[in-house]
Amino acid sequence: xxxxxxxxxxxxxxxxxxxxxxxxxxxxxxxxxxxxxxxxxxxxxxxxxxxxxxxxxxxxxxxxxxxxxxxxxxxxxxxxxxxxxxxxxxxxxxxxxxxxxxxxxxxxxxxxxxxxxxxxxxxxxxxxxxxxxxxxxxxxxxxxxxxxxxxxxxxxxxxxxxxxxxxxxxxxxxxx
Length: 176
Prior knowledge:
The chain is flat and about 80 Å long. The longest helix is centred in the C-terminal third of the chain and has 12 residues, at 119-130. The strands form 2 sheets. Strands 1, 3, 4, 5, 6, 7 and 8 form a 7-stranded mixed beta sheet that branches. It has a two-stranded antiparallel sheet with strand order 2-9. The chain is α+β, with helices and mostly antiparallel strands. The protein has 5 helices and 9 strands; from the N terminus they run E-E-H-E-H-E-E-E-E-E-E-H-H-H. It has helices at 12-18, 32-37, 119-130, 156-159, 165-173; strands spanning 4-5, 9-10, 21-27, 40-41, 44-53, 59-72, 79-93, 106-110, 117-118.
């Protein structure tokens, strides 16, 4: 199957009725927030989207997306490869949806007043959440080796138990 450009917006309910399947790509330069959070990437995000109904007759979107990007290692400051992958099930928030009946492994997504979902923004948000908060090389792959790291030692004054905050307040109230 040929990879084509993915739609920006879709109607998840109509797509589920049609049992639509999409297999395509988004260019990284179109995902501006993701592009701003990384050093560079391979140029595209591979996306597979399957729209259907589940056993409860909820419209669902089964989405997988993946890309390889380059982020900055927070330990050594050098670029490092990071694989970002997403595999999740989403259901649109409609006026008929009873959120208590939605399975816990589904994510509920908002649609606009026309019933459309911004698919590109949804995938971009999910991939942004896949970037580690503090990306680091493995210790044996990092430019800064374990013997170069220092953890410091506490002096004896710092190891003493600090005064109670209430004792400090008492001393402010009743100066000697």
